[in-house]
Amino acid sequence: MQWLTDNFITILDGVAFGLLLFTIAIGLSLILGVLDVLNLAHGALYLAGAYLAVQFFTGRVSIWVFLLALVMASVLGAGAGAGLAFMMRPLAGRGHLDQALLSLGVALVLADLISAVFGNDVHTVSPPGFLSGSPQLAGFTYPVYRLAVILVGLVLALVVYLVVERTRLGALARATVIDAPMVRAMGVDTRPFVAGIFAFGTVLACVGGVLGAPILGAYPGLDQYVLILGLVVVVVGGVDTVRGTLVGALVIGQVEVLGVSLLPRYASFLVFATMVVGLLLRPGNRMRVAAS
Amino acid sequence: MRRINGRVLRAVSAIVAIALLPACGSSFNTGTITSDSVKIGLLIPQSGVYAPLGTDISRGFHLYLDAHGGQLGHRRVALVTADEGAGPDSGVPAGQKLIQQSQVAVAVGVVNSATALGLIQPYNEAKVPLIIANAGANALTGAKRSAYVWRTSFANGDVGASMGAYVASRVDFGQVYLIAPDYAAGHEQIGGFREAFEAAGGKVAGADYPPFGTTSNYQPYLARIQRSGARAVFCFFSGAEAVSFVKQYTEFGLAPTIPLYATGYLTEGSVLRGEGAAALGIQTGLHYSTELDTATNHAFVAAYVARYHAPPTVFSVAAYDAAQVLDRAMAGARTGAQIVAGLGRLGDIDSPRGTWHFSDTHNPVQRYYLREVRDQGGGLVNAILRTLSS
User: Fold this and answer.
1) What is the pLDDT of residues B80-130, one digit of tens each?
2) A216 contact B CB<8A
3) Are the C-beta atoms of residues B361 and B368 closer than 8 Å to each other?
4) What pTM was estimated for this model as a whole?
5) ipTM of the complex as predicted
6) I need a labelling partner for B276 at 20 to 30 A (CA). Which of B81, B117, B211, B346 fits?
């Protein structure tokens, strides 16, 4: 019990970080699960969102500027998603390697463009004015912005869960994961929602970049850090369910925050150790990844 | 198509221009120093995370050079700037190229310690003096000191050690927590502090070294500091990591109860502007501050601000002094050996940071100042409280 009190804030921060990871990983997971596409440009799109925040969040940021940045990120993400889906089309049926190479190429070009425009400085971003400050929480001090990230992450998880599990669109998506040819054989044109789901995933990546900027900042190389954590979440949580991704994200969040706090010496390796354990414990998942 | 052709044309002409540049350079008597000109290499990061330091170093060097009619040691300077990049994989080849291809008589700069260590041997073999204007590795003027490598900046251990006795006296036998990024400079700065701090009777509550360059959330470490019951924290952070650490130190509520001490890099230059009000009251030790009240410094700051519209930093001072020591040491010198002999005879150097001189191992013997971040109307500055030691 004493241990829990001591680590309360750290665990809370792990939840905030986990839910931030969820916004990135759910897109990766949907695109991989539903469309069978490995989108390695996901990290670069997060980075684009983060630099959008660098551009917009200067001085004291009002709620309108904050919302405008989120809208811009959504537009950017939707455009990028539709573009990527279009570029992926000729590669249909050519396997994951070709898709990975294409999206990796897009990622490298995008990251280099960003560093050409913004330079190679590491940027830190202040949270918007109405979300700055650190209230006392059961005797602890915790930044209100990170509480907001927890709230947004939970709402997002709920919305995605309801859409995927409770709507016709979600049912089609789940059916496509299990047996895409059968869905098409039953007369459902899967192409429109291919682009739709792609765009939804990339919108979340860009929006996640804006939301995450006050916590993680923006710097060259952040795209790879985020992409790798997102992929680890997908490996740990699986691509079958929203619930799995959420659990995976929360686990990795705790590993990156609580784990580092308890075992700082192993900070660089903890996430990958978790991934190894995840692979060992989920043989079905391992086979799915191996087959892909 | 017409626009693209225009671009291609411009690109081709740029390539031709670049190809012609070495031809222009060859009109100088390369490698040696003639009676009226000298070729100097400036090796600074123009890309990568250290690029802002490269800018400050270049500014400091040019400020001195231009104030003296583009001459050092009564000779016209032909400056060759090379990009050090982010690490030794790009820095060492760039430094070697300055000797072999550009045939410079002297090289100045070097931000990265690993790059500097990699350049010791080539510069000694070529008998070309290398004036290090930043890289802080203790070994450069310690275990691996050499005839042709001189330093106008600092040794990591010295900067850390400057705060040891002071922090020990301030925490009143309470314990202090140590934290720095997990790379050579972090370990050396903390190591220097720890030695001086424990010698003065201080006790260490714990030490953490977060991964360098990839840590942006310090909450896990801040929680450890709070759990440890430490009375104060001593840290070394630089660049963007300094901004993240200082901001989160305030956000998670440590600032009012656990005072933060550090080496001066935590609050130097553009880093301080990024930290804003979160940095107020932080006390650091360093061998320079824009607030030093000497005639030399007032003149330096005024000239620097007039030209670059930004205050100088400890990095620009080291480069300014590198130009200054070369100016004096090169007078009458014709070879690298004569230049280093001249550096050895310099004695006191009148610098914006105060008077200093080279030690037997070619490292600056200088005063360290206790600085505190204060808001002085126009913005945040590192006000000087007193001298720490020499």
Assistant:
1) 999 998 889 999 999 999 999 999 999 999 999 999 999 999 999 999 999
2) yes
3) no
4) 0.84
5) 0.81
6) B211
Tokens of B259: 């005072």
Q: What is the pLDDT of residues B281-300, one digit of tens each?
A: 999 999 999 999 999 999 99
- Whether A35 has its CB under 8 Å from any CB of chain B: the answer is no
Tokens (6 digits) for B182: 């997990």
Q: Are B350 and B130 in contact (CB under 8 A)?
A: no
To the nearest whole Å, the CA of B199 is away from the closest chain A CA by 27
Is A224 near chain B, with CB under 8 Å? no
Candidates A40, A43, A51; CA nearest to A21 is: A43
A124 touches B244 (CB < 8 A)? yes
Residues of chain B with C-beta less than 8 angstroms from the C-beta of A123: 240
Tokens matching residue B172: 């009143």
Q: Give the tens place of pLDDT for each residue, B128-152.
A: 999 999 999 999 999 999 999 999 9
The DSSP symbol for B35 reads S
Output the six-digit token pair for B159. 């900067």
CB contact under 8 A, A264 and B215: no
Q: Output DSSP code: residue A128.
A: P
**A230 contact partners, CB below 8 Å, separation of at least 6:** A21, A24, A25, A28, A42, A43
Residues 236-295 of B with CB under 8 A from A: 239-241, 243-244, 247, 250-253, 274, 276
d(CA B57, CA B321): 10
